[in-house]
Each structure stands twice: as C-alpha cells, then as structure tokens.
Design goal:
The complex is a heterodimer of chains A (326) and B (518).
Chain A (H helix, E strand, L loop, with lengths): L2 E2 L14 H19 L6 H26 L7 H17 L5 H25 L4 H20 L13 H4 L1 E2 L2 E2 H19 L1 H11 L1 H6 L4 H27 L10 H11 L11 H20 L4 H29 L1
Antiparallel strand pairs in A: 2-3
Chain B lengths: L1 H10 L7 E10 L2 E11 L4 E6 L5 H8 L7 E6 L2 E2 L5 H6 L2 E4 L11 H5 L14 H14 L16 H14 L4 E5 L7 H16 L3 E5 L3 H7 L2 E6 L2 E7 L5 H9 L17 E10 L3 E9 L3 E5 L6 H8 L7 E6 L2 E3 L4 H6 L2 E4 L3 H5 L6 H6 L7 E2 L2 E2 L1 H14 L3 E2 L11 H13 L5 E5 L7 H16 L3 E5 L3 H7 L2 E6 L2 E7 L5 H9 L3 H7 L1
Parallel strand pairs in B: 3-8, 3-9, 6-7, 7-8, 13-21, 13-22, 16-20, 20-21
Antiparallel strand pairs in B: 1-2, 1-4, 4-5, 9-10, 11-12, 11-14, 14-15, 17-18, 22-23
Helix pairs in contact in B: 18-19
Chain lengths: 326, 518
C-alpha cells in the first residue's frame, strides 16, 4: 500500500543547481578574469597571503553560519574580538599572566561573552538582533575602558608564530581555519547537533515539541561564536603584533556578508559550511584582485555590494525553480 | 445579475450553472493530481466535495480559485468560458475561498478585515471609516448576526466569529460562488449550527457554495449534491437525497469500512501515568488523573476548556507550577519535552503545521526528529539507520509520498498526521497523548488511525486522547474525563458515557452534576 514512486529527477543534477556550486563557478570565472588583468594575482604567494588575511573573519563565519541557520544573528562578534584582544594584552602586561595563560584567558573571555548573549536570548527571550546590538556596544565599551586607549606591544618572538609563521609552507592560521572548517562542516552535515540547528531554523516550535534541546543548542552556538572570536583575536594580535581596543570593529558585517553570500538564508533553516567557505574566499579574493588591478577602495566596496545583491537574486530565482520542481 | 438569477429560480426554470468545470487535468512532477474532473454548481446550490486526503480536492479548489492553472479542461462561470490566471481573476469572477487556516489580520478590526483591499474611499482617496462601519453593519444584518461589532479586533474573536468575518469579507466583494474548505474543522457544535444558518441564508440568495468536509452528517444536513473524488479521478456525483453515507464512504475509499470505531476491549494493566493536583495557571487547575497500560482515556471538553494546555503541561512544554507526576509509579519532574520523551511519553499535538512537523524538511528527517538518538552513534547520524526508520514508518502507516526526500509540507493532511504519529511511535513510548488525532482527516485515514490506536493499546500502550468529536471520544475510550474551564468536572465509564451525559458535562448544564456524581 505504501506508495514510494521513483524519485522525480529534474533535467539538471541537483548538485549543479545548488547555490554553492553556482557560486563556486562564478568565483572561478572571477579568478580567471582577475588573473588575466594582473599577473601578481594568481600566484601561490599572493593566494596564501590572502588566506592569512581571511582567517580572522573566517573563524567567525563558521559559528555565524550555525547561528544564522537557527534564524538568529550575532552582531557582537567584532566587539568580542576587540575585547578578547585587549584581555590578552592586559592580562599579560598588567596582571602578569604568563603569555600562554593570557591567550587561554582571552579565549575564555570570548566564550563567556558569547555565553551571556546566548543566556539572555534563550532565558529572557530577547531577540538576538537586539541582544547582540546591545552587546556590540557593551563589549566594545569594556574593551575601551579596560585598555584606557593604550596599546600593548613587545610580545615575545614565539608569539608571532600563529599569525605570521608557516607550517609545510602554509600560513599557520590557515591550518587552524582548515581544521575549523572540517569540524564545523561535519558537525552541521552529519550530527544530531547540526540536524537540530536546521530544525530550529525551520520551525522552532515543532523542534521544541519533538523534544529537541532547543535552548541548550542555541546557548552552545552563541558560546561557540564567542570562543571563535577569542581565537580570532589571538590570531589577529599575533599577526599585527599589537593590541588595540578598536580591533575587529566592523568584522560582523564581513562575516555576515560571507555567510549570506554562501547561500545561508537569513531567515534560517537553510545553509552549509561549504557555502560559507566559498562566500568567504570570494569576498577576500575580489577585494584583493580589484586592489591589485588598481581599483580604488571605494569602488571595491561597490563591487562587493553588487556581487552580494546579484548572488541573492540568483539564489531566489533558483529557489523558485526548486519550488516548482519539488 | 443576481436579480435575474433569482428571477429564473422563482420561475422554476433551469438555472444556468454558476460554475461549470469540465475535463480538468492537472499533474505535478511525479504525481497525477487530477484527471478528467467535471462538475457544476447551480445558483443556490451547496455542492459538497468528498474524498480522502490526497484525493485531489485541494488541487481542484486551488484551480477554481485561480491559484493553480489546469493542464487541460475548461471553466465556465455564468456560462462564459474563463481563464483564471491568478486568485485576483477568480475574485473578479465572483469566486471567493474560505480556507482552513483563516487568513485574517489579527490586530485589525472586523470592519477593516472585511474591507481590506477594497475599502470605501472618501474625497481625496481618504478611507471612509463611517461608510466602512455602516457597510459592515449592513452585511452583518443581512446574515442576522447580532453579536459581532464591526469595531472588535479580530484577534479577540473566537474561531467561529473569525470565520464569519471571512464570510462577510467574501460577500463584501459580491462573491457569487463561495468555496468552503472544511469550515467546521475547528468549530464547536454551536458554531456549526450558526454556520449552517448562514449557509442556508446564502443559498436562498442564490449564492453557490462548494463545501468540503470529512463529516458525513454535515453533508447530509447541508448539501444538495455531492461529488466524490478518489486518487484524482471523479468517482461520481450524487444527489444527497438519493444516496446514503454507506454508498459515499464506499465510493471514497473503494472498499467497505466495517466499523468506524473498532475499539476492542483489552486487559487494563498498571498505571503508567499518574497526575496529582497538577497546576499551571491559568488553564490547568488542580488536575488529578491516572492512565493505565492498555487503556484509552478520552478527554472531552469544549474548545478552550484547557485540554491541550493540560497535555502540554504533562509533556513539559509549559512545566507545572505545582503538583505531582508519576510515571510507572516513580515521581518525576518534567521541565522540558526532552525529559518527557526520555520518560517514554509521546505527544501528538493538535496543530500539525506548527507543532507537529518541520514542514520544509523532508519525510525522512521528520520521521527521525523525535528519535535522533536512536539513529545516531556518538552524535553522528547513521543515514542508513535513519532511512530504515523512515521506510519502516512509511510502510507501517501507509504514508503516500513521492519519496523519502519529499518535503513534508507538500503532503496531504492525513499523510502529515501519519508522519507525526509515526515519528513518535518510532520512539517506542509507554504513554501516547493524542491531541485531536483525526482532525481534518478523511474517513479512510481516520479508520486506520483508530485501528492503530486499538492495536497499540492491546500491546500495552497507555493512551490519553483529546478529541472534540463526541462520537470519537465515546467510540474509542475505555473511560471518559470531561474538562471545563481548566478543571476536571466529570468522569464516565464506557458504559455510562452517553452523548447526552458527556455533552451536558462539557457544556456545564444540569447533567454535569449527574456526571460528577457518577
């Protein structure tokens, strides 16, 4: 009696019309064009260097993908990066922590900052947008207050390995990002945790009624976001050799742009880590390629904005096709 | 136009059909939804559409209301052929649809809702509020509704009154043909009576009505003709006066249904759930009850009497403020649905769309949602195990789906309900709480669910069933509890539970005291 008709296949295989695939194709075309214009662009050195620059935002984009899939948002990540950077320098220089402990402490502060976001969002049901706008200001204010506008310098030589060193010819932080991508990708695609994220984003009530730990999972993703910000701050301080309270400001927009460009729906329920990675690479290489080709900074932002809009249009037209085909 | 039509009717001449559809065909990828459907609606006729879930009723009304375009076939309105490319075309042709989920603006008033999109305008294009209120009053008067003020905010109205607002809205646009999609699914008996009054009034004004319902008695009360669909094909059209419910049921399902409520007596075992003085204000006030293994305990009451709230308090969605819950004799704290699930409690909620299913997700993912731990190792989902779980469920519950990858939101109501039931039974619970388990489900699927309930009870599952359908409560339950205003007001054994006694206890009339004594 059970009727399982053979699955309907549309003309094109499913993976071909996926947003991520399309985006990757656009990325390739853009690479070739920019490479033709500028011979310094498509070199191993340049690309690896771009990977280095991409890591700080990239680490934030992974948990942000989780958060946006649940239908939430975290605007405070840039401020947490600033706070963590300050805490790293402050606890080392002013509190006399050994540097490794100071690094762990800074990452821990990030975790706490994210946990606080999650706690108020799940317990008091403050909308994530409001909550993280508030902590965007709050955490930045803390960073400025603690640093007293003084920067911390003179870190020991070994400290710069994370941000400037290489391992097997590849920048150290790129390895960290790579591990993060693989772990996050598997967690989202293969685990009950990932499935819960999608369920929350598509129908939070039904997820709750199915006995899924909705609040706990949300608390975890906001905490992860804070921890990633701590990690990102460590990499950033190590790369630029100094600590300032305005570090990471504006990162939240780059992060969200990469995630959304990668096909994650801002309304929740849809998205992949692979998409986010493509979005991330695309933005970074566009910036770099355009700069190398002599396009001025303002114009670069315009191009990136245009790419974001175009990709959204493509995504929605694809979505429309899938609706019909479904 | 209306005048002319009424005149025709008075003369007793053959009225031209208001709507005539012929040879309608519609396919979706992988599914033939409709093949060769033809029927007519005469002015002043109530034409019922009957069929199991997935038989094609929804597709047909979506074609008539311009949401879908047919692959083949013709639609004539008032004898003129018409292409309906959008819902707006249908509206202009005088066709209005009242869907199951009422589409109203909760924060606006009755008058604003009625005239949304075609409000009377004053000078300079300003809204003419006075005219709007007056016109709404006039419409209310034509239907002799006296207890609904145009200035009331719709969000504060009962379901029955909201539906009246929808009907007013249709009439305000001069609708000549009204499509009602299961209008009584969420109504109390009293509201159903009032709805039928309105329908008869509309009939006398020459409005044609397409009426979709699963409730056989309603069709015999209100309809003139009935068209039966099965698997997208038209089985036949009958005059209601010349058919019987047995014939219609047979046409619908293509087989004879021996009994609607096949409850068989089974030995009742030890208590599975005991609840003592459970309180969660405002709707759960000091409730005590016991459900035993193998027992089906019916929970009757009017809509809004606090039955679903009680179920959700037991299940941990809205944890109790005070009182005791014992599962298999052990006192437990249930502060979240996850805890209830771990204790072997399953809850099939009333509202499939928002509480039961994640509709954008597919069949497989929905089946495993409440039992992810069973198909995962160390948190990793074993996709083969998950597929097996879903396949077992699809076969056991006879779910009609294109594939396991099909998005659940596209399945019919009955199939969706089977998935909700299946996803909870996959978890092998000890106690099953069913909240309106057969609402909006066709006769065939309903009988299947009832048979399944008996089977599960026989296997020792304790079942707490909430239902607003009295025949279902009386037919399926070993024992019936009645709730009113957040309290248990009466208990009946199966033998004592007569429709009169239970009904009286629900309404809080004289009989309730007799019920309490019993």
């Amino acid at each position: 009696m059970a009727v399982l008709a053979p699955e309907v296949r549309s003309a094109a295989p499913r993976w071909l019309i996926r947003h991520e695939t399309l985006l990757a194709a656009i990325l390739l075309v853009a690479l070739v064009i920019l490479g033709l214009f500028n011979e310094r662009f498509l070199t191993v050195d340049n690309l690896l260097n771009q990977g280095r620059l991409m890591t700080e935002v990239g680490l934030l984009a992974l948990p942000m993908t989780f958060i946006i899939i649940t239908g939430g948002i975290d605007l405070s990540v840039g401020s947490i990066v600033g706070l963590c950077a300050i805490m790293l320098g402050y606890s080392w220089k002013n509190l006399g922590f050994p540097l490794p402990l100071a690094i762990a402490f800074a990452i821990g502060v990030g975790g706490v900052a994210g946990f606080v976001n999650g706690l108020l969002i799940t317990r008091i049901r403050v909308p994530p947008l409001i909550m993280t706008i508030a902590t965007l200001a709050l955490y930045r204010g803390l960073a400025e207050g603690i640093s007293q506008a003084r920067s911390v310098r003179n870190y020991p030589e070994w400290f710069f390995f994370t941000g400037q060193g290489e391992w097997l010819g590849v920048p150290v932080q790129l390895w960290i990002l790579l591990v993060g991508i693989i772990v996050a990708g598997i967690a989202l695609d293969r685990t009950t945790f990932g499935r819960t994220l999608y369920a929350i984003g598509n129908n939070e009530t039904a997820a709750r009624f199915s006995g899924l730990p909705v609040d706990r999972v949300k608390l975890v993703v906001y905490t992860l976001s804070g921890l990633a910000a701590g990690l990102s701050a460590w990499v950033l301080v190590s790369r630029v050799t100094t600590t300032r309270s305005d570090m990471g400001s504006g990162y939240e927009l780059d992060v969200i742009a990469a995630v959304v460009l990668g096909g994650t729906s801002i309304f929740g329920g849809v998205g992949t880590i692979w998409g986010t990675v493509v979005g991330l690479v695309m933005i970074q290489l566009l910036k770099n390629g355009l700069a190398l080709t002599g396009v001025k900074g303002d114009a670069t932002i315009i191009v990136i904005g245009a790419v974001l809009i175009a990709s959204t249009l493509i995504a929605s037209s694809l979505h429309g096709r899938r609706e019909v085909a479904g | 136009m209306n005048e002319a039509r009424n005149a025709l009717m008075r003369e007793g001449g053959p009225a031209a059909p208001l709507l005539a559809v012929a040879g309608i065909e519609k396919s979706f990828p992988g599914v033939r939804a409709l093949s060769g459907v033809s029927f007519e609606v005469a002015p002043g006729e109530v034409h019922a559409l009957l069929g199991e879930n997935g038989a094609g009723k929804s597709t047909l009304i979506k074609i008539i209301s311009g949401v879908y375009q047919p692959d083949a076939g013709t639609i004539h309105v008032d004898g003129r052929p018409l292409r309906l490319d959008s819902p707006d075309d249908a509206r202009r042709a005088g066709i209005a649809t009242i869907y199951q989920e009422l589409l109203l603006f909760r924060d606006l008033t009755v008058a604003e809702n009625v005239f949304m999109g075609h409000a009377p305008r004053g000078r300079g294009g300003r809204l003419d509020w006075k005219a709007m209120a007056a016109k709404t009053e006039a419409l209310l008067a034509t239907l002799e509704i006296v207890d609904l003020a145009p200035s009331r905010v719709v969000g504060s109205l009962s379901v029955g009154n909201r539906q009246r607002v929808e009907i007013l809205r249709a009439l305000s646009q001069d609708a000549q043909l009204l499509i009602m999609d299961e209008p009584t699914a969420a109504l109390t008996e009293y509201d159903v009576t009032r709805l039928f009054d309105i329908v008869r009034r509309l009939k006398s004004r020459g409005v044609g009505i397409i009426y979709i319902s699963h409730r056989m008695d309603e069709i015999f009360q209100i309809a003139d003709r009935v068209t039966v669909l099965r698997d997208g094909a038209q089985v036949g059209t009958r005059r209601v006066a010349e058919t019987s419910s047995a014939e219609l049921v047979q046409m619908m399902v293509g087989r004879q249904i021996e009994s609607l409520f096949p409850k068989v007596a089974v030995a009742v075992g030890a208590p599975v759930l005991e609840v003592r003085d459970l309180v969660r204000r405002p709707m759960t006030r000091s409730i005590s009850l016991t459900v035993r293994a193998g027992e089906i305990l019916g929970l009757a009451g009017l809509v809004g009497s606090g039955r679903s709230e009680l179920a959700q308090t037991i299940f941990g969605v809205t944890p109790a403020e005070s009182g005791e819950i014992l599962v298999s004799g052990e006192p437990v704290q249930i502060r979240a649905p996850g805890r209830a699930r771990a204790l072997g409690i399953a809850y099939v909620p009333e509202d499939r769309a928002t509480q039961g299913l994640v509709r954008p997700m597919n069949v497989r993912e929905n089946f495993s949602l409440a039992s992810l731990a069973r198909v995962a190792r160390f948190g990793f989902i074993d996709s083969a195990a998950e597929t097996r779980l879903a396949e077992t469920g699809v076969t056991r519950f006879r779910v009609r789906a294109g594939s396991l990858d099909q998005v659940v939101g596209r399945l019919s109501g009955g199939n969706q309900q089977k998935i909700v039931l299946g996803k909870w039974l996959a978890n092998q619970p000890k106690l099953l709480i069913l909240d309106e388990p057969t609402r909006g489900i066709d006769v065939g699927a309903k009988a299947e669910i009832h048979r399944l309930m008996c089977e599960l009870a026989a296997q020792g599952l304790a079942i707490l069933m909430i239902s607003s359908e009295l025949p279902e409560v009386l037919g399926m339950s070993d024992r019936v509890l009645v709730m009113r205003e957040g309290r248990l007001v009466a208990e009946f054994s199966r033998a004592e539970a007569t429709p009169e006694a239970v009904g009286a206890a629900m309404m809080g009339s004289q009989g309730a005291d007799a019920g309490r004594a019993a």
